[in-house]
Amino acid sequence: MAANTDRRRINAPSGGTSAPVFAKPVKAPGYLQSLRPNRTRGPNELRKTCKQTNSIRTVLQTGVVPSASGSAYLEVPTTTASSQSSLIPPTSSLKIAASIQGPKPLPRSAPFSPTLVLTTTVKFAPFATRYRRGYIRDSAERDLGVHLEAALRGVIIGERWPKSGLEVVITILEGDEDAWWGDDKAEGGAGSGWGLLNVLAGCITVASAAIMDASIDCVDMVAGGVAAITADGQKVLEPCPAEHQDLVAACAVGYLASRDEITELWLKGEVGADPDELIEGATHAAMGSVSVLREVLLESMGTKTKVANEVSKRKLEDVEMTG
Amino acid sequence: MAATTAAAAPQDSAHAPALTFPRPIFAAVAPHPFLQAHLAASQPSKTPLRANSRTAHDFRRVGINTGSLTHCNGSAVVRLGNTSAVCGVRAEILHEAHVQGTADFAPSTGNEAEEDPEREREEIESLRLLVPNVELSTGSTPQHIPGNAPSSFAQTLITRVQSLLLSTSLVRLSDLRILYTPPSNLDDPDVEPVPQLKGYWVLYIDIFYISIDGNAFDAAWVAILAALKNSVIPHAFWDEDLETILCSDVPSEAHPLTLRGLPIPSTFAVFEGKRDWNETGEEEEADWVLSDPDAFEESVCRESVCVVVDCTGGNKGTKDGILKRLEKSGGGVVERDAMKGLVKRAVDRWAEVEKATNAKS
């Protein structure tokens, strides 16, 4: 493990540690299956709308990092209620924070760039997934960063900021899983990567909200959406991989709703003869995020004008400072 | 928001041009005079306010939210004004076979009544059973951009956190040990079976800053405290058939961590006013000790003091505190008498934070 040699952090015991193994699933095979979560919403039902009570709804909030030029936080709750009889969490929710630094001048050593230089960093927190992650970025995180960059590059009008750089930093505090943990173990832990698609869609949505918050010129709002096909050919929107045992293909898009364009498309698995249907499903899911984004945009505009008013009022009251 | 004028500016010289700026520009161009102008309020009737409209002794309110992360044994989100941190505590098992050099830590006898914090600390430290880490490069400040190695600030911060964790003996070793008592010997039923040490729980304590606006240390520590208080460790046992450590997933069998006391840090920044401003005037107090500095104040203050107190030991509430740690660096303004005042302020702060940690957990 690379973390063992990192002298700038506090390291784990050199002998290595292992995640706890729970006794009941090992000893009683039937018990394991009883924990399996199932999809409780319809195939076309989005996660956000499944529970209307305020406490378990999608949360999208801008302005969580005051020192950054723009920031947002997204929380998509899990649809499976955590059971009271077991300490093993059935599914995870999605919790992502995004922060935008810039646009700011590029360092002197950087070569000339006529457009905005976009840098995206996606990092999972060590506690984001069922298995502990390290502090050094791994390939999945770099992969997500590249996909996110592709999704954002298509919307930002980069020509307006020559010789400038923009940092988009995404922190995943809790991410979706690739499969149900019980299956995962049976297959030898080889995740098929379905969870990454959900994470990518969340990253696109939250980054879009943060870019809005930073007031960076865009052609449209980009929103993420996911759709998947199960083994029996059914199309499901916003799948929670833990709830499905038999996903064969999935697709995540970065979708511009008012222009009806796609800036990012990530397709995985055996799509079959007609991939268009799957892509269309993903754009439908993205439409759900668009409506949330619109709400947030209006809200943040409202608070911004209110703050601006207050500041100008205060200016009148202020005695000027001399120095 | 009380705005103040710099009264100390020489008024008599008529030809001295008095520059005037709007607030944000004044703060950016001349941060030091800006803060001094705030603190040296002209009207004696009003308490001088800092630029963030707190008085010098005001701390920011602590907001704590616990148990929001699914994959953690315990977690907390702490807000301290614009500073916010997420802390997740995760327990993993260190098998006895993988322990390196346990020979000197033979499992103590079943009699856990006499706990020796000093011995426990040594054992926890040498086996690295507590693994705290921080991550600042989350876009939380413009100074910490991801892609770089942990900055010296991050390294200092985590070293301070770790040394406080160890020196206060916050976590009990008995909570981390996984013992196994073999069934009594059939041939010799009189001999009491001796519990064997089969492994340890290792606590990974990860702190992610969402946003930093000064006083990162206090936020990190309160987040750790709240997360540890919130932590539940599953019941672990040695399975003879499988020859491994298994856990029970029944919540009622799991045990919470019982912490030793509740040490709470209070950080102060010392703002040294420029004395030469007041050439003709009488000697006036020109230094201020600011509680809970924000990022702007940290940038203009050199000296900082951190006082860690714990008032849980005594039965007289906050009147009976124990000083756990004093850290001071950067200058010599705070001397012995001033330090006494700071400790008093830290004790008052303890009561505030203690209330916040108990309210939510």
UniProtKB/TrEMBL annotation, chain A:
InterPro entries the record matches: ExoRNase_PH_dom1, ExoRNase_PH_dom2_sf, PNPase/RNase_PH_dom_sf, Ribosomal_Su5_D2-typ_SF, RNase_PH
Domain Exoribonuclease phosphorolytic residue range list: 59-216
Domain of life: Eukaryota
Pfam family, one: RNase_PH
Molecular function (Gene Ontology), one example: RNA binding
Keyword terms of this UniProt record: Cytoplasm, Exosome, Nucleus, RNA-binding, rRNA processing
Gene Ontology CC terms, in alphabetical order: cytoplasmic exosome (RNase complex); nuclear exosome (RNase complex); nucleolus
Region described as Disordered: spans on this chain: 1-23
Principal location listed in the UniProt entry: cytoplasm
GO biological process: nuclear mRNA surveillance; poly(A)-dependent snoRNA 3'-end processing; rRNA catabolic process; rRNA processing; U4 snRNA 3'-end processing
Subcellular location(s) of the protein: Cytoplasm; Nucleus
Family the entry assigns: Belongs to the RNase PH family.
PANTHER family xrefs: EXOSOME COMPLEX COMPONENT, EXOSOME COMPLEX COMPONENT MTR3
Protein name: 3' exoribonuclease
Lineage: Eukaryota, Fungi, Dikarya, Ascomycota, Pezizomycotina
From TrEMBL, chain B:
Protein's cellular compartments: Cytoplasm; Nucleus, Nucleolus
Exoribonuclease phosphorolytic domain span: 58-234
GO process terms (BP): exonucleolytic trimming to generate mature 3'-end of 5.8S rRNA from tricistronic rRNA transcript (SSU-rRNA, 5.8S rRNA, LSU-rRNA); nuclear mRNA surveillance; nuclear polyadenylation-dependent rRNA catabolic process; rRNA catabolic process; TRAMP-dependent tRNA surveillance pathway; U1 snRNA 3'-end processing; U4 snRNA 3'-end processing; U5 snRNA 3'-end processing
InterPro entries: ExoRNase_PH_dom1, ExoRNase_PH_dom2_sf, Exosome_comp_Rrp42_subfam, PNPase/RNase_PH_dom_sf, Ribosomal_Su5_D2-typ_SF
Main location: cytoplasm
Gene Ontology CC terms, in alphabetical order: cytoplasmic exosome (RNase complex); nuclear exosome (RNase complex); nucleolus
UniProt keyword annotations, A-Z: Cytoplasm, Exonuclease, Exosome, Hydrolase, Nuclease, Nucleus, RNA-binding, rRNA processing
Gene Ontology molecular function: exonuclease activity; mRNA 3'-UTR AU-rich region binding
Key word Electron transport present: no
Pfam families: RNase_PH (PF01138)
PANTHER family: EXOSOME COMPLEX COMPONENT RRP43, EXOSOME COMPLEX EXONUCLEASE RIBOSOMAL RNA PROCESSING PROTEIN
Family label: Belongs to the RNase PH family.
UniProt protein name: Ribosomal RNA-processing protein 43
Originating species: Paraphaeosphaeria minitans
Lineage start: Eukaryota, Fungi, Dikarya, Ascomycota, Pezizomycotina
